[in-house]
Amino acid sequence: xxxxxxxxxxxxxxxxxxxxxxxxxxxxxxxxxxxxxxxxxxxxxxxxxxxxxxxxxxxxxxxxxxxxxxxxxxxxxxxxxxxxxxxxxxxxxxxxxxxxxxxxxxxxxxxxxxxxxxxxxxxxx
Length: 125
Fold this sequence. Notes:
This protein is α+β, with helices and mostly antiparallel strands. About 40% of the residues lie in helices and about 25% in strands.
């Protein structure tokens, strides 16, 4: 899992570019925030919030990922809802499991690997 923040990715994307004076090409795609409800200890309701983005260096895959953003959001919502449903009591979410499952959903939705999932804030309250 890549632990760089989305802002670091934007800065890196701005700085990268062709050595021949060409315009810098963006590699970062912000997918957005997804939420899901879960049951906390004592019957209270909780909310799991996850911010996601992608780092896609390949130009063709970057275009495909941009066009597939709604499908990626839908796939991420399903994964986050499944992870939220498995939360027990006041235990924190397993971020490593969440990252693995979201990366698998990314690869499946785009049809191939090459896009790296970036997690922003993962919060359960």
